[in-house]
Amino acid sequence: MTPTVQKVLGALLLLVLGILSLPVVAFFLDGAETENWIVPVQLVLMALIGAVVTLV
């Protein structure tokens, strides 16, 4: 697999995971005391997933 194809597949994977993970994070953190944590947790989660995709 060429590096260009790997980059495109990695970008698509991150896009799909970003779209799917926001509702999952919101489901678990949707409460009176935790609703302000949805976006920060989502950003950290996507940064970690991006790091893993980059290393693999």
- Indicate how many domains the architecture comprises: 1
The sequence of SSEs as H and E is HH
Instruction: Estimate the strand proportion.
Output: under 5%
Largest sheet: none
- Portion in helices: over 70%
Sum up the overall morphology in one term.
elongated
Rg, Å, rounded: 14 Å
Give the mean pLDDT. 90
Task: Report the structural category.
Answer: mainly alpha
Report, as a whole number of angstroms, the end-to-end distance: 13 Å
Tally of helical runs:
2
**Which ranges are low-confidence, i.e. pLDDT below 50, for 5 or more consecutive residues?**
none
DSSP E strands, number: 0
What labels describe this entry?
56 residues; 0% strand; elongated
Structure description:
With 56 residues, the chain is mainly alpha-helical. The chain has one domain. The protein has two helices and no strands. Helix 1 packs antiparallel against helix 2. It is elongated, with a radius of gyration of 14 Å. The model has no long low-confidence stretch (mean pLDDT 90).
